[in-house]
Amino acid sequence: MNKDYTEALGSLLELAFGGGSTARNDAALQNAMTPLLALGCRQHQIAGGKTFVHSGFAVYSVFVLLRGSARVICYSAAGAASVQDSLAAPQMFGLIEVVEERLMFAASIQANTDVLVLEVPAALFRSVLQNSTPAARVIIRNLAFLAVRNMDNVEYYTLNRPQQTLALYLYQACKDTSKPYTLPLCRCMLAEILHIHLRSLYRYLDELKSEGLCCVVRGKITVTEQQFAALQQFCAGFEQP
């Protein structure tokens, strides 16, 4: 492993995940990326709505989200899509797959907003994890963050009522997107994903509509800017994770 590469990636991760003001400074991030670009990494400016990690594809890189936000999308065997989470920078996608040496990505990652991403080849990332203490610290903290977040989400969906679960799903789906947001799922798929009876789903949707949390436009579940604000407040009322 190239010592320069190990030190450069460790410095970038510390800068991006450090939480200080420099972590949000594009100039500082660009300077930290420059030596990595010469060593085989690639920088991507990706427009909102574009998918940059594809579920089921071979794991070839870790994608470090440095600016913007992205959503995690999983698919059922029948092809139904489910937004599992929405995460703002800094974040690492493909990290779990690389650490566990999985062959394929477990989920797709789609940009919510315009994003800045550094693509790090998987083999080089593994070597840095083994040889750079600063990088390893950042990676471990990030894995701990994801583990706690996932446990909180599971607990949340288990303990709350179906109407609240539906509200949170809509909130997570349209968070960090332009409004009005149209949910790209039919009601049958949504009921299957949330484990809610279809007839009950219609009733819960009617309740959310009556409370001004969503609407239906041309047959599609839609959330306007005003409804999103109300939806955010509604979800915060029952301890959104």
Automatic annotation (TrEMBL):
Originating organism: bioreactor metagenome
Coiled-coil ranges (or none): none
One matching Pfam family: cNMP_binding
Every Cyclic nucleotide-binding domain range: 49-146
Protein name: Cyclic nucleotide-binding domain-containing protein
